[in-house]
Write a structure and sequence with these properties.
Elements: E1 2-3, E2 7-8, H1 28-36, H2 40-51, H3 65-81, H4 100-122, E3 123-125, E4 143-145, H5 162-166, E5 172-178, E6 182-190, E7 196-205, H6 212-215, H7 220-238, E8 242-249, H8 251-255, H9 259-270, E9 275-276, H10 279-289, E10 300-306, E11 311-317, E12 330-336, H11 340-347, H12 354-369, H13 377-380, E13 385-389, H14 392-401, H15 409-412, E14 416-418, H16 419-431, H17 434-439, H18 444-447, H19 451-464, E15 469-472, H20 477-489
Parallel strand pairs: 5-8, 8-9, 10-13, 13-15
Antiparallel strand pairs: 1-2, 3-4, 5-6, 6-7, 10-11, 11-12, 14-15
Helix pairs in contact: 7-9, 10-20, 11-19, 12-19, 14-19
Biased composition (Low complexity): 41-57, 121-141
Region (Disordered): 1-165, 493-516
Biased composition (Basic and acidic residues): 58-70, 97-108, 150-165
Length: 516
């Protein structure tokens, strides 16, 4: 049928035209339309033309059941979609979700994406940047789960050296030295051969020998100060499982009339049993304590310990066969009955002038003149000879020389000072008044009146045995006591310092350890 405007007019009711009878079927829906298109369509067309409709002819009311069913189906689809436009259903998997279904789908996609990121983070290649392996030995890259949970906070410790870890269960040894000026305690474990690790320590200036040179007796105030310090030492020893201990007293108790009575009081009030050692033992212990500071290149050494009431000096000559105990190489020794406390009391240690300082040096030189020892030790091989000083005097000089903000044993012990540096430091201290010495952090008010007396003793020793260099030792009798006790017990013999890795030493008498 021809339309005057657009040519052939399409069928209005969805029925196929007579010219479409031979076309192939396109779809099931199309086939349904063909079944519903019968003679009433032609009547509809005639009625539309008769009415003069050009493009929007009114649809006739179909009485046939197929048209009614199709209309009802389209109506139901429209109501289900909830929209004016009825869209054909897409294949399963391509349908657009609406409302709550769309939000649920987005949530699922988000969760899947988040799980994918976490899985990728947990699976980290161990050798991500490793070199490409040879094809013959190539293997799949190992993957390990990595937890992102925060690790528990741990205490930070410096990593111990292997031998330190081995010596944790070694036996404990204790050494106490009650001197004229100080009360000192060390508790330590044996470690590598000839060395030990300090577990606990105590040191306090008690001035037990205060006033001893004038009266010949220990004063009540000095004894009270010493007993209080010894009570602290007794508590430390009681809280430890000490295998062996040695407690000594030196010059103050040796020289005092009431020295033995004072040690009996110490036994009653603290439970500590101290022994008074002689001067030769004191000199040997000082050498034993400093043996690790004497290098293999040294052939002769003069070691001195400037104490509060006495000063010990040992001349050491080392031959080709060096003994494990340096004290075995002592050729000459002496103990001067003078120390920083006794010398400062006689000459005045608070206000020291160049003249009074020279007087102290002269007194010590006169004592050394009576020491029968060859003075040409340094002339044999000057490059193989040096001095070792173990006392508060030389450690103070080293601390001031290093300009330390506060005394640091780790930086002082073992440091070398040249002969010119020692001379310069003594002149510097002599130029300071008492307040300037007390203000220095390496001297302090407790040593401000003693340090120049110690410098006078040092100057007399340097004049007797000139040396190009001096080595400073922040160690002494306590270290010597510990070294001797450990050596006597054989804790450093081969195999005795090894640990049973299943826990504890194989034999309590065979500990192991590490150097401090």
């Amino acid at each position: 049928m021809n339309d005057p405007d657009s040519g052939v007019k399409p069928p209005v009711s969805g029925a196929r035209d007579a010219g479409d009878a031979g076309r192939p079927k396109r779809s099931r829906r199309r086939k349904g339309k063909q079944k519903g298109a019968t003679s009433p369509s032609a009547a509809s067309l005639s009625a539309g033309q008769a009415a003069g409709s050009s493009g929007s002819a009114e649809r006739p009311k179909a009485t046939d059941g197929g048209d009614t069913a199709r209309r009802n189906k389209r109506r139901r689809r429209g109501k289900a979609a909830g929209a004016e436009n009825v869209r054909p259903l897409a294949p399963v998997g391509q349908r657009e979700a609406s409302g709550e279904d769309q939000r649920q789908a987005e949530g699922r996609r988000s969760r899947r994406k988040h799980r994918g990121k976490k899985a990728a983070a947990r699976t980290v290649p161990v050798a991500a940047e490793a070199a490409v392996p040879h094809p013959a030995t190539a293997q799949a890259v190992e993957t390990r789960p990595v937890s992102h949970a925060p690790e528990p906070r741990r205490e930070v410790h410096s990593a111990p050296r292997p031998a330190e870890r081995e010596g944790y269960d070694a036996p404990l040894y204790a050494a106490l030295d009650l001197g004229t000026n100080n009360c000192r305690l060390l508790i330590a474990q044996p470690t590598r051969p000839g060395q030990f690790r300090v577990v606990d320590a105590f040191s306090r200036i008690v001035r037990l020998g205060e006033g001893l040179a004038a009266s010949g007796r220990l004063s009540d105030e000095a004894m009270d100060r010493s007993v209080e310090a010894l009570k602290i030492c007794a508590a430390k020893l009681k809280n430890r499982n000490i295998r062996r201990a040695r407690l000594i007293a030196t010059e103050a108790c040796r020289a005092a009339i009431n020295g033995e009575a004072f040690l009996e009081r110490v036994r009653q009030e603290t439970g500590l049993d101290l022994e008074i050692i002689n001067r030769e033992t004191e000199a040997r212990l000082a050498v034993s304590g400093c043996s690790s500071l004497v290098g293999r290149e040294a052939k002769s050494v003069v070691l001195f310990d400037i104490g509060g009431g006495s000063s010990e000096i040992a001349v050491i000559r080392i031959g080709e066969n060096r003994s494990s105990r340096l004290a075995n190489h002592i050729t000459h020794w002496t103990s001067l009955p003078v120390g920083v406390v006794t010398l400062s009391e006689r000459h005045g240690g608070r206000d020291v002038t160049p003249e009074s300082f020279a007087g102290m040096v002269s007194e010590v030189e006169a004592m050394l003149a009576n020491f029968d020892c060859p003075g040409d030790v340094v002339r044999v091989a000057p490059e193989d000879f040096h001095l070792i000083g173990t006392s508060g005097t030389v450690t103070t000089l080293a601390g001031v020389h290093l300009d330390l903000p506060r005394y640091d044993r780790r930086r002082v012990d073992g440091v070398w000072l040249s002969d010119d540096e020692v001379t310069a430091m003594q002149a510097r201290l002599l130029s300071w008044d008492f307040s300037a010495r007390a203000a220095n952090p390496c001297i302090g008010p407790d040593r401000a009146d003693l340090v120049l007396a110690g410098c006078a003793i040092l100057e007399a020793i340097r004049k007797r045995w000139p040396s190009r260099r001096l080595r400073v030792a922040d160690r002494g009798l306590r270290e010597g006591l510990l070294t001797d006790m450990m050596a006597d017990d054989g804790v450093w013999r081969r195999g005795r310092h090894r640990r049973n890795h299943r826990g504890g030493p194989r034999n309590p008498a065979k500990p192991e350890g590490q150097a401090s």
